[in-house]
Amino acid sequence: MEGSLPTRRDLERLAAWSDLHRADGLLRAELSRRLETLTDTTLLEHEAVHRLVLAPGRRLTMYQLADALLVSRSGATRLIDRLEERGWVTRRVAPHDRRVVRAELTREGAAAFARMGTVFAAAFDERFGGLLDDTDVAELRRVLAKLLAAR
Question: What is the pTM of this model?
Answer without folding.
Answer: 0.85
